[in-house]
Amino acid sequence: MYKGTVTAGQAPPLGDEAVQFEISAPSEMGPHVTQYTVVRMGSVIATFTKLSVGDDTVRAFPPALVAQQIALLRQAQS
Fold it and tell me: 26: which of 4, 11, 52, 77 lies 20 to 30 Å off by Cα?
């Protein structure tokens, strides 16, 4: 049986809309945490995913990298 927990995070102030959440579940190797950042820019949706297995220090996907990619999406749609 799969037992996981979904936790909403603070959405980054990027694009037209954005959400951030993570799904965590226990595993034999330690906690299995997948963090998602989803950003809509115009008609394009970009998804950024970070996977951490067995590491108690879960760090967010680098915000500067996400902002850079969203800026490129904005330019491509202009």
Answer: 11
Over the stretch 25-39, which tens digit does the pLDDT of each residue have? 988 888 888 899 999
**pLDDT single digits (tens) 42-72:** 888 999 998 888 776 656 677 788 888 888 8
- Do residues 73 and 46 make contact, with C-beta atoms less than 8 angstroms apart? yes
Closest CA to 23 of 46, 45, 2, 44: 2
Strand order across the 17-25 sheet: 5-8, 17-25, 32-41, 44-53
Are 30 and 44 spatial neighbours (Cβ–Cβ below 8 Å)?
A: no
DSSP code of residue 29 = T
Question: Which residues touch 42 (CB under 8 Å, ≥6 apart)?
Answer: 16, 73, 74, 77
